[in-house]
Specification:
The structure is a homodimer. Chain A is an alpha+beta fold. Helix content of chain A is 22%, strand content 31%. The interface between A and B is large, with 88 and 88 residues.
Chain lengths: 380, 380
C-alpha cells in the first residue's frame, strides 16, 4: 500500500481541476479524498476499463479495449497525482492517465443520475402558453429548430403554424431532425374524413386520448400530424401528458397498470401486428418509461380472476383522467399547421365537429433518438 | 340469480363448440362450467368490453367501443347459451353475442401464455445445420421467404447464399419482409476494410460478439449484413445466442445484469446518441426481452461501491461466455451472401483474417414488427 498526498499546483489547471487532499491505493482500488471533503473510490478493473489512451479509446470516445480482455485480478501497481492529472500503472504493465476532473466527474456517487430528457409535467394550465413555432423559423434550422425540438423533449409535444399545405410536408418536417419510420401504413399515411354532424351524434366524431400503434415492436416513439385542408368547423385536437396523469393515479392503481401485460393487436389483409406491454411501462429504475393506451387495439384481458375488477377500475380511472379537462390541452389545426407528439408519453385525441365539411391530414412516425441527437448537436 | 343448463345440440357446431354443462350468473359475473370439467368466470365489465357487435367492433377487429364509456357498475341482466352461442344482455340494455368457443378460448386461465415468438435456444451444436437459404428462393416469396423469416423468429438469425453483389442488395432484402430503419448512418452503411495480417496481430482484426447501437432509442431490432466482395482469406462471421448464454449464467449474475442500468453512447460531428438500459432487459413477466452488450459504447459504470466488483464479475463472465466455442457458430460470407440477426437476441462478431485483401460489406437496420407481420400473413 502506498499513500500520496497531493495538491494541484499548476495555476493553469487549478480552476478546472478539483483539489486532492489525499489518495490511497491498495491493489484492488484507489481511494481519493478530495479537498472539498468528498471521497471517491475507483476499482482497479474499472480504472483499467476506462483508460483513455489511444490504444484503449478511439478519438470518437468509443472503447477499443475489449473489456473482456482485462485479466482477472487486475491490480493497481502505482498511482500518482500531478499537475491536475492522475497516472496509474497496472500490474499488467499498462499505464493510464486522466485529468483529475474526469475522475471527480465519474465518481460512483453519480449512480442515481438518470440519463435522458428532463420532463416537465403539464396539465391544462399550459393552455395559454402552448409551445408553438412558425414553420419558417424551424425550417431555417438553428435556434428555431432547437426551440421546437427542445419543447418536444421537455413537454412531449410541439406545434408548428403556417407551413405549406403540400402533400409530403409531414415527412419533410420529420427530416428536419431525424428519420421517418416507415411502416405498413407507408412512409406517411392519409387521414381523410367527411364530417357531417347532422347525421351523427356530435360526440360520435370525437376520438378519445390514445397512443398510436402499441401493437408494434418497437412502438414508434414520435408521431407527426399535418393538416392539408379542413373545411369542417369546430373540431379540435386534444393532447394530454400521460406521465402527469400516471403521477396522479393512486400508487396501487399505478402498480397494477405497470405490472399487468396487455396484448395489443392490429390485423388486415396484409399485416398482422401483435405485441404485449403493460399500459405503464417502467424502466429498470422503476421510473415511468412509456404509456401505451389504446382501447381500439387492446385485446381481451387475461387476468387472474381476483384481478379483473381492480384492474378494470385502474384502467378506467386512468382512461377517464386522460379525458378530464384539467389535464387536457386543445388546439385547432389550420391548413399548413402540424404537431409532433412523443408517442410514449403524450396521448392525442380530438373533439367532435360542429359544422360539416372535409378534412385532410397526413401523418408519419419517427423516432426519439434522431430528435435528441439533433437537439444535443444544436445545443453544443 | 339465474341458472341455465345447456348442451350444445346443433350437430353442425358440436365439433367446434365446447359443451357447456352449467352456467350461472349474478350481476357482476358469469360463471361457466364446461363439459370437460373446466370452469371459467367472466366479469360483466369484461364481457361488455369485448362485445363483438358491429357497433362495438370494426370488422378488422379494432374496438369501436371506447372502454371508458362503459358505465360504472355494469351488470349482466341475462345470459343464454343456445346453438353454440351465448347471448348476454346488460343492465344498460346492450346485448352481446359470442360463439361459446370464443369464450372458452378467452378464459382467463390463458393469462400466463405470453405473446411473441417461440424461441429455440441454440449453441455450437447447430453449426452443422445453420438456417441457410438460397437468395432466389427467398426473393420468390411464399414458402422460401416464410422459411427464412421463420428461422429468424425462432433462432434469431438466418443466412442467405448466392445473391447478387450489387450495392443496395441489403435494403432490397429488408424490403422483402419489412421496412428499413434509416439512421444517422443512412438507409444503409458501408463497411470496407483492407486486411493485412502481416502488419497486425491475427486477433487484432477480430471483433468480439456484440449487439449494435445500444445507444439508440429504440434500438434497431434487426440487422442485415451483405457481402459485396471479399478477397481476404480466413475471416469468418460469428454469432452467439445471447438468450442461451444468459440462461446459463448463475441466477445471481443474471439478476445483477438485469437490474443495473448501463449508459451507452455514440457521438461524432453530426450525432450524439445516448441511452440507458441494463445488459439484460426483462419484460414485465420477468422474462428476458433483450440483450445489449457492446464494450465499445458502454460508458463508465456508475455503481454503488460494493457492487462494482460483483458487477464486473457478472459482466465479464457473460462477455467471455459470449466468446466461448460451445456457444458460437461460425460461417464465411462469400460475395453475394448475407445474413440477418435479431439484434436484441443474437450477438455478432468476426474472427481475424489469415490472408491479406479487401472486404466490402453493406449493412442496414430494420424492425421485428415487419418481419413477424409478414411471417404471420405468409402462415395464414
Amino acid at each position: 500500500m502506498t499513500t500520496t498526498s497531493q495538491r494541484v499546483s499548476d495555476p493553469l489547471t487549478r480552476q478546472a481541476s478539483p483539489r486532492v487532499s489525499q489518495s490511497v491505493f491498495d491493489g484492488s482500488r484507489l481511494r481519493v479524498d478530495w479537498a472539498d471533503g468528498h471521497r471517491s473510490t475507483f476499482h482497479a478493473v474499472w480504472l483499467r476499463d476506462n483508460c483513455p489512451c489511444p490504444e484503449c479509446r478511439h478519438p470518437s470516445g468509443q472503447r477499443l479495449l475489449d473489456t473482456r480482455s482485462i485479466p482477472d485480478g487486475i491490480a493497481v501497481a502505482a498511482a500518482r497525482f500531478e499537475n491536475g492529472e492522475v497516472e496509474t500503472s497496472f500490474a499488467d504493465g499498462h499505464r493510464a492517465r486522466w485529468a483529475t476532473g474526469w475522475l471527480r466527474d465519474h465518481c460512483y456517487c453519480g449512480e442515481e443520475r438518470p440519463a435522458g430528457p428532463r420532463h416537465r409535467l403539464w396539465g391544462a394550465e399550459i393552455q395559454s402558453e402552448l409551445p408553438t413555432l412558425r414553420f419558417e423559423e424551424v425550417v431555417a434550422g438553428g435556434a428555431g429548430l432547437r426551440a421546437w425540438l427542445s419543447a418536444v423533449d421537455e413537454l412531449g409535444f410541439a406545434i408548428l403554424r403556417g407551413g405549406p399545405t403540400e402533400p409530403g410536408t409531414v415527412t419533410r418536417a420529420a427530416e428536419l431532425f431525424g428519420y421517418v419510420r416507415e411502416t405498413n401504413y407507408g412512409r406517411l399515411f392519409d387521414v381523410r374524413s367527411v364530417v357531417n354532424p347532422g347525421n351523427l351524434a356530435y360526440t360520435g366524431l370525437g376520438l378519445g386520448a390514445h397512443t398510436d400503434n402499441p401493437y408494434r415492436d418497437p412502438t414508434p416513439t414520435l408521431q407527426l400530424l399535418h393538416c392539408l385542408s379542413s373545411s369542417a368547423g369546430g373540431g379540435e385536437n386534444t393532447l394530454v401528458d400521460g406521465f402527469r396523469v400516471a403521477d396522479d393515479l393512486s400508487p396501487g392503481q399505478r402498480d397494477l397498470l405497470a405490472s399487468t401485460p396487455v396484448r395489443f393487436r392490429f390485423a388486415d389483409e396484409e399485416s398482422e401486428l401483435e405485441t404485449e406491454t403493460p399500459v405503464l411501462e417502467l424502466d429498470v429504475r422503476g421510473a415511468l418509461r412509456a404509456v401505451h393506451y389504446n382501447t381500439r387495439s387492446a385485446q381481451p384481458f387475461r387476468l387472474r380472476e381476483e384481478l379483473v375488477e381492480p384492474y378494470y377500475a385502474a384502467y378506467l380511472a386512468f382512461g377517464r383522467m386522460l379525458e378530464a379537462p384539467e389535464y387536457r390541452i386543445r388546439f385547432r389545426l389550420e391548413p399548413g399547421d402540424l404537431f409532433i407528439v412523443d408517442n410514449l408519453r403524450v396521448l392525442h385525441g380530438r373533439t367532435g365537429y360542429s359544422e360539416s365539411g372535409e378534412r385532410h391530414l397526413q401523418g408519419c412516425y419517427a423516432d426519439r433518438d434522431g430528435l435528441r441527437s439533433k437537439l444535443a448537436v444544436l445545443s453544443r
